[in-house]
Write a structure and sequence with these properties.
Keywords: Membrane, Plasmid, Transmembrane, Transmembrane helix. The chain has a single domain, classed as Cytochrome C Oxidase, Chain A, CATH 1.20.210. Helix content is 73%, strand content 0%. It contains 16 helices and no strands. Helix 8 crosses helix 13 and helix 10 packs antiparallel against helix 11. The radius of gyration is 23 Å and the shape is globular. The protein starts with 13 loop residues before the first helix and ends in a 21-residue tail after the last helix. 51% of the residues are buried.
Amino acid sequence: MKAANLDYERAPPPGVVFGCLMPAPWLGAAAGLLLAFGSVDGLPDRFAPLALAAVHVLALGMLLPVMLGALFQMMPVVAGVTVPGAGWMAPLVALSGGGSALALSAGFLGGSAAAFRWAALLGAPFLVLAGLLLLGAGRRVAAVDATTRTLAWIGAPLLLTALCGGVLAGLFGGLWPASPAPLLALHIAWGLGGWLAALVTGVATTVLPMFWQTSRLPARLERWLPLAHWVPLLAFTVAVVAWPRSTALSQWTLLPWLVVAAVVAGFGLAGTLKAKRRHDPVWPLWPVACASMLAAALLAAAMPFVPDSRAPLAWWIGSLALIGGGVLPVTAMLGKIVPFLVWLHLRKLLPPRARVPAMQAIIAPGRQRRQAMLLLAAYLMLLALPVAPAWLAPAGGLAFAAANLWLGVQLLTALRCMRRMRAQGGLPPRVPRPATLPVEGGRDG
């Protein structure tokens, strides 16, 4: 969809979107600090208590608020449909996500059943409600391209992920008996594949050509998005529910989705490497994100053929998918969308002739570039963590926390710029340069 087709007059008030986006980097920093100072016992096993705690702080505390905030913005601007209740939900997104992540961390690290019960109470009802409201809004979306088709049905994978997660939290909290293995498989598949990968793909088909001037995905591929994500995952769900004890069958039925993810990531990598705005400070995050999604899909497809269960494939797959496929593109989009929203709202709030700062003046490009490089360095350290967990968990966690704190400061700088411009009515008027008078030379006589 071209930028000309976006209806910015329907954009929600600034507080709705910023209320979701602003807390996210600080909660991402909390995940890094948790990894830096927590006990590394069991790492890099994906079921190590510290790994489970950090993953949920990252997914619920950082990624979830940004993704919901993006939906609150894109639904009216891209699809012309307002999400009902977005105004009162926005301030609660980070509170609910962060609170449930904190409770889950206490449960994983301390073994407290009460903490899991609190997590189920704080997170699941709110996310189920958010999923239902998104589905309700999606019924009114005219699905004409990959982005609008994603917006129309994105509430469904959020709903499934939240329900499976809530049941698991209640199980660990002693509220009811259940078999954890199939619930865990569905929670991970729909959380990483149906929710995160599908939403990032659907949003990227609009924002990548708009902000970084990339080529679009092939028309035949884009025509099948997001169903190409969701239909294979539905087949996987049927296999898990019908044959919960057959791990091999579930692994094989996941292969079609992994092929889809690899194909989408491969075309995305080719497109971002040829982007016209490769000089943009956060551009490097996109090809790394696409390469990470591709690598995660290939490694996951290889898991049934790896006999040594001690190989850290699960750690690499999780890091590639959650950080590479989630944190990196989210950071890149925040670095472009927040300055753009500040500029957009200033244009709407100030008098027509008022001067507003350029996007590059709202957040300095040099700072964005250095923050992106720090984030990539942290990412590499976390990928290498299986080599020396005792050293790389603290180093990678601290670097990841520092990168997110820096991002949080940059977003606050953008918000302060917006408030300052509103208070003073825009930039001072340009001072015209004095005209240079020609020097007349006299002649003798």
